[in-house]
Every structure is written in structure tokens, then in C-alpha cells.
Request: fold
Amino acid sequence: MLKLEARPEASRFWRIGSPLLALALTVLIGVGIFALMGKDPLKGLAVFFWEPIKSAYALSELAIKATPLLLIALGLSVCYRANVWNIGAEGQFVLGAIAGGGVALLADGGSPRVIVFAVLAAGVLGGMLWAGIVALLRDRFNANEILVSLMLVYVAELVLAYLVYGPWKDPQGYNFPQTRMFDAVTQIPRLLKGSRINVGVLIALFGALGMWLYMFRTFGGFQLQVGGLAPAAARYAGFSSRRALWSALLISGGMAGLAGAIEVAGPIGQLTPHVPVGYGFAAIIVAFVGRLHPLGCVFAAILLSMFYIGGELAQSRLGMPKALTGVFQGLLLFTLLACDTLIGYRIRRTGRA
Amino acid sequence: MTAPRLEVRHVTKRYPSVVANSDVSLSVAPGEIHAVLGENGAGKSTLMKIIYGAVKPDQGEVLVDGQPSRIRNPQEARALGISMVFQHFSLFETVTVAENIWLGLDRSHSLESVRERTAQKAREYGLDLEPDRPVHSLSVGERQRVEIVRALLTEPKLLILDEPTSVLTPQAVHKLFVTLRQLAATGCSILYISHKLDEIRELCSQCTVMRGGKVTGSVDPRRESNASLSRLMIGAEPPQHAPHTSSAGEVALAVRSLSLPTPDPFGVALHDISFELRVGEIVGIAGVSGNGQQELLAVLSGEQPRAPAGSVSLFGRDMSGRGPRLRRREGLHFVPEERLGRGAVPGMTLASNTLLTRARHIVGKPPLGWVAPRATAALAADIIARFQVKAGGPQAEAKSLSGGNLQKFIVGREIGAAPKVLIVAQPTWGVDVGAAAQIRGELLALRDAGCAMLVVSEELDELFEICDRLHVIAKGRLSPSIATRDASVERIGEWMSGLWSEAAPC
Reply:
């Protein structure tokens, strides 16, 4: 018989090993799913884990999808470390896209190139505004931030829909619900000719570095984490819990908003009802698989980006439903939560038959 | 000759980093009150867990009533009539006292009957306990009473008590001893774990002394002196403190007619509390836990800034609405009762934990507030070295330290800030004799250096040892102060029940 036994102290090995084991289990279950659906498991795995990295073009697509995931997950990591459960990053992402897109729509051919900065800044502010509503309601009325942030996702999507079906609809767009394409001057600068990859990926990587510095090298980041780990210690030290709440939500909202602006002013180039594709939710998984650590988030963002691409390829190449992306994301989170047990416990074989 | 109620034979238990028990043997006769004496980390708790079935030994065996015991878990231990009161409580905070006890019993009892029996047992043993109060509103001392009553309800044949008296008044300790002797007279054996030499000599007829996981002596404590017992326990005699002679200076901390209602229905409201704390003196506040200590301390530390204006002042400046950081800037530091989770963040390193109260000098200017890891590590290493904290170094997590060592670290952190006013709650709760003596020595040295100090403790011995004046807190009111040399344990004990005349000498 197997028995779980509490470890005297948390295992450092399994803190890193758990996400890897979870990934292995996810792959294993994935193989089972492919086999059950009558597909060649090897082909299925190749679609998820080889196709996305096999060429320069594939890698650039991988980076494009990893960029918003990483940006959002970085903000969420700070939030979760502060014990503030913002699960509405999707809505903050949408608001960032709307605000950034709104600025981009103001530009024409004669606008200066620096308007890109205005687009990005508007995105950050948009995301902060949406997260600020959550902070305000929690601070003022003690409303549960999980519910409020989640419900604001749907409000954000409706705001987006209202704009693209209504006032911002492209007059020459054959009545499609979309804005006109943004002027080229608002386009996020591309890194390489002939590839869609843009400076957003650099912003995200610098964001990871910045977030690491903030969390582990500044007093503000320290206060935030103390508030999350031990509220009584934060009170004892005199750290303001209100300040922690506001900074956590504004940081994560701002990061999600930035991701939204980069997305619309980069790969998409206009606002449509299909801007939100679940990055805000997938980033929750990225944050946890990445151990709420910026470096871990980088790897996890790449992994989840593979799932996105793999899901699309599985649809086009193997004729499998696109929902497979969500299945893989869910499996990863599910197995991760299970594997995390190993951090605090070890498995012992007991003598009884 | 009848078989011993409990016999432990050559038990060894190794943990990855330490041998907790090495070839430990002891034997307890029916009806015997047997003490296990040792410092924190001597292996007492591990031994108890082995007896109680919570931990399996690597070698050796445990015999109950002469039969090799096959206790695999605490339920089986209880079925054999072994009951234990742990030092660290295992209570569910969200439900009531009676429901907690009910959860630990088998299903055949109704909650109603458990409520009645709880109240009755509590009365029988002189333990003040309301069965319907939710546990989260109880103080440490009250929670321990729940654990004791819970153990007594199982009508045990062997009762294990881990440091049970630290939160009782002297009168209640006396009552408990009467009960324990009664219980022993009915044939129930008692294993009494403690580091209080006086209590062991008063209560127990046999004593096993442990040090570093090994048995260093098996003696009749009634024939030993405190000095000889403590030599067995720590290998040395605790240092004696010279009597204090210098007189107190200007008023450092003043509390004036502080009254504060409590939002929690089971909290304690503070009534008209006034006292002064002067430079160069240690004032003690005695009292049974749950009489307003938590509330008063939160007001003094600034964690509770709702106190009426003018009620708390530091060197003549009103501090009542200020938070802990501003008070620290004025020189007021505080050591709270709870070490893990309040005095220190369990999952953070000692280096990071210095930032809780010492950030002002090692963190860069805002808005950046740069934290230099070298500076925090150096400060932590400094505290570790100066206060002989046993820890893996500045990068050890706070939760990896034993209670006594973490307390030394926290006290050291606050003393190292060179406070003008230091407030300490339970300076040596659960700390072994050697470390306790060291902490008290440091507090006295700080007092002599001109610090004004307030010590809130439930251990009267400790207050009598280090304080110049004493107050007693009972039901949210504060007694007048009395010079320690004029006070007696009996008088303070009476005051702890709330009985003092307002005209007592100040």
C-alpha cells in the first residue's frame, strides 16, 4: 500500500520537479487521448511539441503567442503572491486592447512614430482602470475580488462588442463587426523583416527581468509578498494591506492591458470581437506552472503557447477539435495541482498488503 | 510485580538532519506521575509522538501494560487509553469548543451530551471554559484548556501532558496538580513534560532527563535540587541575575484612561487602563491569557490604531493614531506572542525577515526602496551570531528554526534596533531554560542601557525575576502597580482573578 507522509520541510527538488512531472503526465494522458480518438499518438505529439519549434517561422509564431501570455502571467504572479486573486486578466487585456486601439484609431498617416508609445500607455491605463474597479470594490465594500474580476471579463467583452458593432465600426468594412485597420504608423516595430515577430517579445522579456527585480529586490515587492504569506506579520510590521491590494491589482491590470495593446497594435492590427482568445485565463496556468516566478513564467508561457499552436495545427492537420488546446491546458493545471502534493508530502510504501 | 503501564525500550528515531532519539528507555508504573525533563530540541516531543503512535521509531519498542504495543496512529492510542495534550494545539478555529471535542470522539456521542460533559469536566477540574465559544476567539491559554478537557473526557489510563501549566495562574496550577494527583490515585499514569524544575519537584515522583536525544539521568526529583536537575538537563547551571538597584528615569510610554470596546463578541474590551513606563525600568503585566493582553498589546504596538486620541503617548507625543512603522521610528519596538506568522514570515528566509522591522536602515530611499541582499544577510548573520541562534544561516527559512531559536532571533532583531521602548509578549514561552536565561539576560542588559521595557507574560516566575514593578490585567482592567520586591505570588495570584483594591500602594 502507498501512503502519503508529511515531509519535515518542503522539498526544493519537487518545487521544480512538480511542473516537469505534470508536463510528463499531461503528455502521457495526451497520448491516451490521441489513441482513443484513433489518431497516431506520435503525430499528435509532434503537432504539439515539434511543429511549433521546427522552423524560424514557427518559432516566431510561438513567440507572438507567448508574449501576451508572459506579460499577463508576470502581473498575475505578483497578484497571487500578494494573495489577491485576480482571475479577470482577460477583461483587463480586452480593456487594454480597446484603449490602445482607440488611440491607434486617432492616428493617420501624418502622425509621428512616437504614437506607438501612446498606444501602449493607453493599453496599460485601460488595464489598470479595469483592475482598479476590482480594487475599489474590494477596498471599499470588501467585495470578493475573484467574482468581481471574473464578471468584469464579460462586461469588457460586451464593451468591445458594442464598440465594434457600433460607433467604431469600419464604414468600409462591408458591415463586418470590426474597426478599420490601424494606420501603419501605430504598428509595433517588427524585429525581423518577413516575420510577424515584434518588439513586444522584448518588452515581455524585459518585463520578466523588471518583475524579478520588483519582487525580490525592492521593499515594495517585499511588502506585497509578506501581505500574501502572513497578513498578521504585515500588520505587525506596519505594511498597509490596502496599498498591497491596490498595487497588486494595478500592476497585474496594467500588464494585462499592455499585452492587449501589443496584441491589437501588433499581430492583429484592428479591433474585432475575436481579440480575446483566452490569454487572460491561460496566463493563470502560466503563472502557476511557472511557480509565480518570472523565470518560470517565461518557460511556462512558451509551453502554453505551444499548446495554442498545437491545438490549431491538430485541427487543420489531424482533423481534431480545437478544444484540444483547452483540454491540454486544463490537464496541465490539473496534474500540476496533483503533483504539487509531492512538495509537502512524500509517498511511502507501507508494509501492509 | 505488575507490569509497568508504559515501557519504552531502546528507542531510536533518526530524521534526515538529526537523531531525535538515541537509545531512549523509560518505564512508568500505574498511577505514577513521571516527568520528562529536557530543553527544547532534546527529543521529548519526538518521544511522545512515538508513544502516541504519531511517529514510528527506527529501532526499539514501546510496551503498554507489558504487551508490545502496535499503536499505528493516535486513534489506536486512544483506544488503548493513552491520551495526549499537545503543546501545539490541533483545533479547528471555525467551530466551537464543544464541536471540536465532539470531532475527536467516536460517533456514538451526541453533540448535546458532549457539551454537557465538557462543561462538567471543566468545572470538576477548575478549568474555566465555555463550550459554545468558537475556538478562533480563544486565547492561547484558553485553547490549551480545551485540549486538556478533551483528553480528560476519554478517561485515559495514561495521560501525556506537554508543558501544560505555562498559561495557568498559580492557583489554577495548584488546582490542576490536585486533580492530577487525584487522577493518579485512581491508577492513571501521567507523563508530564516540562522544563519547570519547581513544578516537577512538587508534582512528580520519577523524572527522566533528556539532552540531545539521549537520556542523561533517571532520578527522583523530590530528592534533587533545581541546580542538580538543571545540570542534568543543560550540562550547566542557569546564570543568576544581579539585583537591580538603579532608579527609573523620565516617562517613556504613557497610557492614559485607555478604553476600547471590542468588535469581536468574544474579544475583551479594555476599561480605563492607565500606566506609565519609565526609562531604565522593566514593568511586567501578569495575567491569565485572554484577559485583554492581546487587545492592549495591539493598541501599544500600533497594529490597532483605533485607540482614543491622547491615550497612548511616547516621550510626551501622542501616538494613538500612528501605525507600527511610525512608532518604530520613534524608538518603540515590539516582540509579539506569535512567532510564526506575526513576528516572522514562516516561508521567508531569516535575511528577509529582518526587513519586517529593520528595513529603515537597510532599504534604499523610496520610491525604489532597493533591497540589497547582502545587507539583509549581514544583518541576519549578525543577529544569529550575537544571540547564538541555532540556524542554517541567514538563508534558512524562519519555519525551519525551533521555537526557542526563532524567539531568540526575533528578540535579537528588536534588541539590535537599540529601541528606546521595548514591549515584549511572552519572552520565553516554550523556550528552553538555557535560551530563556539568555533572553532574560539580554533584556536586563538593555534595561541597564536605558531602555524602557514592558513585559507581558503568563509566567510569574519570569516576571518576578526580571521586573521592577508589576501590574496585573484581568477582564480588560489593569491593577495598580506594585514594586516586585513588595509583591508575593499569592497576592499577584489573587489580583489575577480581578480582586484588587483600587487603593493599593503604587
Notes: Chain A has a mean pLDDT of 91. Chain A touches chain B through 19 residues (CB under 8 Å).
